Amino acid sequence: MKKLLIKSSIFRFLESIISVATVLLLTPYFIAVLGSSNYGLWILILSIMGWFNVIDLGFPQAIQRQIIQALELKDNNRVNTVFSTGLVLFGVLGLISVIILVGLTQVPAIFGVTGIDQITLVHILLILSVKVLWGFLMNPFHGIFSGLLRFDIDANLSSLNEITKSILVFLLISEMNIWGAVVATLAADVVTNILKIIYAKRLFPSLQFKFSLVNMEEIKELFSYSKHLVANGVIQTIGSKSGPLIITQLFDLQSLAIQRIAVNLVTHMQGFVSTITSVFSPVFNKMVARKQNMERIFIQSTTIYLFISTVLNLCLLMFGKTFIVLWVGVEFEYSAYILYFVVFSSICSGFSSSANNILLAQANHKLLSLLSLGILIVGMPTSIYLGLQFGLIGMSIGGAVTGLIFNVFIKMRLFKQYNNYKTAGIYKNLCLSLFITFSFGYLGNYVLALLNVDTWVELVLAGIITLPFVILICWVLLLNKELQRLLFNAFKSIFKR
Predict the structure, then answer these.
(1) I need a labelling partner for 415 at 20 to 30 A (CA). Which of 165, 267, 336, 450 fits?
(2) Can you give the pLDDT at residue 429?
(3) Contact 345/406 with Cβ under 8 angstroms?
């Protein structure tokens, strides 16, 4: 299992590198060819598409959990029952999503855009409804990859998707405008989704769809687990996907582009972190199936998150302002100030990710929806009020404060009701993480300004010189000797191979 986890982490890390590289290369080109307003329109379209994740009703987690536990018990018939039922279920949910999306295009004013942008938005959403349906149908196949700890295959296919899409975007948008991005997105999905089906079958030869295995009892069993995730999913989707709509209503598409530059950079940094930490989720499911105590791995996974997150976010705050100006131009410099608050929110959210995954694995997630509702009720009005008072910075402050209260304190309090683990150590590391990230981040940014670092060569050299010291500081301050030895031996075994 350790070998598979390390292998999966490596390939997921490479996936993140490819994803970030394609974004870094394409975003300036996208903005230069289409303009910041059309870039904002594309961001809005992607956000609207993300709204339809809520209609999965929490079933992806339920499917993955059931498949993982069936594989652990070597029950192939059970795997195929869950898979077949899931495929039909997601087909129906996908069709419902398409119908709702088509219905929304009949009242386009709700998206906060007018004129020719509104017409373009409607046409693109109608075309991309196909992508929504495909996304739903792929969920049972992801359950197979997750159950067998083969995140490396999923990561490689996602990397292929990014590369294919990026190449096509580069070739098409100069001639087809924003429609080039639409064609590129659909073409890349066709290729990778076909490959996902082929690899899932090769990975698990016994996998097969049988309509006779589809039954209501299985759906009821899936729903008994996912019913508490439904409200949670609805609330989280509203909270995470409403931001772009609020910005277009309060401000304009260009403001959305500025805000998303900061958010996307932090999201990609979190993507790097999750390549390591997300592989623990199926491990928690396996340990629950075996009825094993998870306190040690909970503390280790949370500490590893804080270590990797601190290294990457510290570098982001150090070099963010200079990077953004060199990357997309001085008109996006304001994004650098938003970074500080988005990074804070991201660290707070990730701090409780292991606790969240353990609650899901134990089926102790009944109150998570109430927690998400609290975040929405407090966070959205706060962000809107502060946004009206202080602009985009105000909205970011609202998100940061809400994340601290609910993810760091309330969610962890809920976790301790079910698992009386010792958490003093990880809270200490969280405080250290925040102190290191923001103090050294601000200091590094100040030094770069004093040194007048304003070229790519100077920025890269500064990064190469600084990174080893950042890693060393975080290694010493955030990791105990046992975890240092564990990580060192794990990476040592990789290089030996």
Answers:
(1) 267
(2) 92
(3) no
Name the CA radius of gyration of the chain, rounded.
22
Nearest to residue 63, comparing CAs of 80, 38, 40?
Answer: 80
| Of residues 304, 419, 396, 411, the one with CA closest to residue 349 | 411
Three-state DSSP class for 155?
helix
Q: Give the C-alpha separation, 22 to 43, whole Å.
A: 16
Cα distance between residue 19 and residue 441, in whole Å: 24
- Interior CA angle at 326 toward 325 and 327, to 5°? 90
DSSP string, 270-298: HHHHHHHHTTHHHHHHHHHHTT---HHHH
Q: Residue 195: is its pLDDT beyond 80?
A: yes
CA distance 231 to 376: 12
H-only helix segments in 352-455: 353-361, 368-390, 392-403, 411-418, 424-451
pLDDT tens column, 423-440: 888 999 999 999 999 999
188-194-197 Cα angle (round to 5):
140
Q: Is 382 exposed, middle or buried (0-12, 13-18, 19+ CB in 10 A)?
A: middle
User: Is residue 97 within 8 Å of 87, Cβ to Cβ?
Assistant: no
- Stated pTM of the model: 0.70
Residue 175 in tokens: 């001639």
Distance CA(462)–CA(459), nearest Å, equals 5
Is the pLDDT at 497 greater than 70? The verdict is no
Closest C-alpha among 285, 279, 284 to residue 304: 279
